[in-house]
Design brief:
Strand content: 15-25%
Helix content: 10-25%
Radius of gyration: 14 Å
Shape: globular
Structural class: alpha+beta
Order of helices and strands: EEEEH
Strand order of the largest sheet: 1-2
Largest sheet: 2 strands, antiparallel
Amino acid sequence: MKLFVNGPPDFGGSTAQAAYTGAWSATGDFAIGRAWNGTPTQGWTGDLDHVYAAQSVWTDWDILLHAAM
């Protein structure tokens, strides 16, 4: 899994990456800025802006093209 913050490094952003080998089943609600432990908890303090979610894996090139828009 790779997280891009403020776009790809080529555009001044940064990335964090971690190996993930388990199954992923995203069948619930999509939520950003909070944790979930049966109920919403640990809300994000601050702003979230320009958040994108996709139903497929984006390549580094896809991220670069999107950041250039």
